[in-house]
Amino acid sequence: MVTFLKKELQRFKQILRPDYKETFDVKTEEGRDAREGVLKMALHFLCKMGHQDLADELNENELNVLCQNELKRNLKNKYQSVFEGIAKHGSSVLLQRIYTDLYLTEGGSGKISEEHEVRQIEYRTKRSVEEDKPIKCADIFKPSPGQNKPVRRVLTKGVAGIGKTISVHKYILDWAEGINNQEINFIFPLCFRELNLMRDKECSLMDLLHHFFPETKTLTIGIENKYNVLFVFDGLDECRLQLNFAGNESLTDVTGVTSLDVLLTNVIKGNLFPSALLWITSRPAAASQIPPECVDLVTEVQGFTDSQKEEYLRKRINDEGLASRIISHIKSSRSLHEMCHIPVFCWIAAMVLEIIYSSGQTESPKTLTEMYTHFLIFQTRQRNIKFDNVHDLKTKWNHALVLNLGKLAYEQLEKGNLIFYEEDLRDCGIDVKEAAVFSGMCTQIFREESGIFLGTVFCFVHLSIQEYLAALYALLMMEVERADTISTQSSTPTRITSQKNAVDKALGYEDGRFDLFLRFLLGLSVESNQSLLHGLITMKQIQTGNDETISYIKDKIREASSSERMINLFHCLNELNDHSLVEEIQSFLNAGTLAEAQLSSGQWSALVFVLLTSDQNLDVFDLKKYIRSDEALLRLKPVMEESHTILLSGCGVTGEGYAALAAALKSNPSSHLEELDLRGNDPGDSGVELLSDLLQDPQCKLRRLRNPLLLKELDLSERIPGDSGVKQLCALLEDPHCRWKKLNLSDCGVTGEGYAALASALKSNPSLLEELDLRGNDPGDSGVKLLTDLLQDPQCKLKKLRLQSCSITAEGCAALVSALASNPSHLVNLHLTNNKLGDSGVVQISTLLGNPDCKLQRLW
Description:
Largest sheet: 9 strands, parallel
Strand order of the largest sheet: 15-16-17-18-19-20-21-22-23
Structural class: alpha/beta
Low-confidence stretches: 23-29, 85-90, 109-114, 125-131, 444-454, 696-712
Number of strands: 23
Number of domains: 4
CATH architecture of the largest domain: Alpha-Beta Horseshoe
């Protein structure tokens, strides 16, 4: 007892030291009553000694220690297990057992992608990740090496189901278990789904924390903000608050009562609790709701890499042989393998294939539609076993429930909603309890505190499941009810007209909202999927033959001016088991005759599809491999957007082709372009102007990997109209984001005026260029003298300088040598052929070569 007492009093003494820093240790339950007794004694004696201020400080700190311990305990209980499937009805698994690191990177595209999220995932791996900056989730608030500015507000983006929320849970769990980030005193995770349910209420920041975290009601957080606090706002894309950052009033008092919208905007802006860390997660399309000035770091969750997919599957499946078999099958189907970048789909695929192989079945799903059909069957059987005690191998379908869920999925898909409320379910004839127990298809999140029931929020496990059920609903309505839900224009709707209407509907949405819906709808018309749904759809109800629909899709492909929008239609043809257009292109590729082929519009689209979905590396786009023409640039725009290097030299590209190139790069600010080779083409003035506009576009600065300002090499030889063209480039050379290493301006008609602009630009950014090619221009001695300031700058990194045929005389050579003599250690190659240096110029050069610091290796 004496030892215990001394230890506790010593701890109290530490707490009251002026230099004490709050580093709370998790205490065990044992001895809590004894500690409270010792605390009361200490407080009593401090008061008797006339130290009421110390007693108050000790009491406050001790209460906050208890708050932190209780908060950690509750967060650990909440996040240590995950439910695979749906909350409260799925199978609980320890997060630490199955957690697999996700590929998280710094930075992100400044552009809101209008592509369907599944398409973003399918083509993500075509891009090289050499310029990505991987970051560990546990380190997101730690500045990068060399970064002085602290990271306080982080925005993490990622498509639906990619693992944003699980990353948050792992971060919090590691903190609660004392593994990482113990310098943080309190973490308060707040989900926008739950915050939505309080959107009409008014409260203070402390009221909000006490409401969601009752264990913190004794916590004292004053205006001095002496504790390290992290607020986590998960799921910005599900926020139904206005978040009016510009119009909301400013608030600095943590006890000030206001609307939830005002409260959150002030926390994010840093008016309320300015020292607190802030972590926001969002799907990409909603991320722009947060003003850029309110974000210190953008990160992006890119899902599983190929190795992480295997790691997750082996962790989840105990049987090593079965895991290997499942991994092998997933790799055999490109569409399944790419979708497994999404952790939720990885879980779906693992569950379906484990059931199929364990039951001895030989046929495995190879398309998305087959995989989701098996998933629906499994969830339906699980429900029948659990709630109806039906163990029949034949699936007993609840037609009404499937129809109603499908109606909900379809109507909310049209509205663009991913979450819905009880009234939405009731409008579709769904009993809330029935939906909640339909295992795996819906999640239910509700909260009940202090006897107050806040409400219920619903969503499908993943957007793709919503799209599948919406497609199934459209099929059932046509085949069973004879009603075309897609279009009401048909007086006598048929399956074929419904499918055609679905094709038109999907093409009508630029955001690709109905792309996957269409893929599923057509896949469900295939006999193999119909047989799986036996009992829900009878074979008699389904008319056979999809030839007319296939022909209609091919006509749409041929009519299209853009190959990009047709990519999904090729996936649809795959679902219908038609590969004819792709096979035609494969025959050209296999024969090596593509460069001479005269391709139809449909074949061009097929070529784009083949290139984007093959295993071929697209880092280098070389037009000579295909067809050297402006049309090729127009048609292959989606392929160019995926490339790091674009080689167009000697391809006869004119102004029209340059327009296509500029449009491709300008429409995709997340382009990864490093190198652009345009030699031997004739773009004309209009073509050069288009590229100039692209390079000066301020949006380029937001690119995730590289933008035109970050080109390693820019070769515009013979293409820039004299000094005016050089002046346009100088604005880029002065930009701090510019990373050009090589600049080729040979034979560009640059005179002294252009040299003056170039010298001024390079002087402001002297460490930029390593190679400068100015041959064939006529600046004269005065132009060369303008470059001497750059060459004398100790930060100058120029290694190669080409000045052939530049009308340089001995006078210009003297100025050049003088500049190099004062800074001789950087230049390696110097080209001065076809100038009029004379003997005196050569003498000047020889003095430079005699300098022991001179690093010249080649001299022409």
